[in-house]
Amino acid sequence: MDYDIDPELAAALAALPKGPNGSLVDFSDIPAFRERMRAAGAQFPAPAPDPRVKIETLGIRREDGSLLEVVMFHPGGADQPRPALVYFHAGGQVLGSAHDRAAWAYGATMALRLDVVLAVVDYRLAPETPAPGAAEDGYLAYTYLTEHAAENGIDPDRIGLAGASGGGAPATATALMVRDRGDRRPRLLSLNYPMLDDRHETRSSHEIVDLGICDRRESLYAWAAVLGDRMGAPDVHPYSAPGRATDVAGLPDTFIAVAQFDVFRDENIDFAQRLIAASVPVDLHVYAHACHAWDVFAPQSALTRTFEQTWHDYLRRHLHGQRTPLRDATARDETTNHIAEP
User: Fold this and answer.
1) 132 φ, ψ to 5°?
2) What is the tally of structural domains in the chain?
3) For position 155, which CATH number holds?
4) Residue 1 domain-assigned?
5) 220 lies in which domain range?
6) Which of 13, 114, 140, 310 is such that its CA lies 20 to 30 A from the CA of 320?
7) CA distances from 243 to 126, 170, 201 (A)
8) What is the pLDDT along the chain (342 residues), one digit of tens a residue?
């Protein structure tokens, strides 16, 4: 297929190193790919986060006694409770960490720009932890922060859920769990090109096969790691693959952004349509000439600037209740760790 990619994005992608399979991503051997990514990241110094943002790691005990870690970005002191965004990182549900220091500068910048507490969930990855383990981690993080909002400088009525790519699955499943279990409703659900459906039946799933970013092949490998033998079965629960949800009523206001040339395009559009039919307010944005994770691969491009302005404005309006200017926060540059009991 001839992909009419925006020239700025095409140039950025052409400059990035590809793996043996000709793609930026290779989930055929997940441990080996993780090691290649770790080694590549070690060659570059991690950018220092903004010193005005305090970074701490919150440890929350699971029922089995293990710790779920949540990296908290605080854009200022505890002078007033701030909105919070519980964030699920990308990586196909098999890769990545909230402790990726290369991403800390981005997290600090986002917390400052939005004037929110950004809480990045270090959810368990597949195949070591199959679904819905990641979503249960998300539910634990969200409910803990609503119950312990004051001590974390958070307004419990202004907490949103957000996920990118693979992180979109546990973010959405967390929203379903919160609804089904009768907990405090999130302020919003924000999804950037989310990975939602294991069935791979859509047109875009069959179209995007050789773009070299997150093609059908890699999506199949990732979902096989997440679900194992359950992948494609008729009885997969929405907590494990939220694109399977037939009842989406009662979910919070939702933002969905996806690229024209994205393997997840049509499942994202379909999910948005089901939300609209269920009377859930939805902002759906499909970016022409863009590819999966274009904002990550070409952060300085015009398409990325347009997307980020739209996305951040949505988050400000829903978390702060109005359009708000960019605001600097003041805080010491501090990284701490403490353990919390639920």
Assistant:
1) -100, 35
2) 1
3) 3.40.50.1820
4) no
5) 7-340
6) 140
7) 18, 11, 12
8) 789 999 999 999 999 988 888 899 999 999 999 999 998 888 878 788 789 999 999 999 999 999 999 999 999 876 789 999 999 999 999 999 999 988 898 999 999 999 999 999 999 999 999 999 999 999 999 999 999 999 999 999 999 999 999 999 999 999 999 999 999 999 999 999 999 999 999 999 999 999 999 999 999 999 999 999 999 999 999 999 999 999 999 999 999 999 999 999 999 999 999 999 999 999 999 999 999 999 999 999 999 999 999 999 999 999 998 544 433 333 333 333 434 433
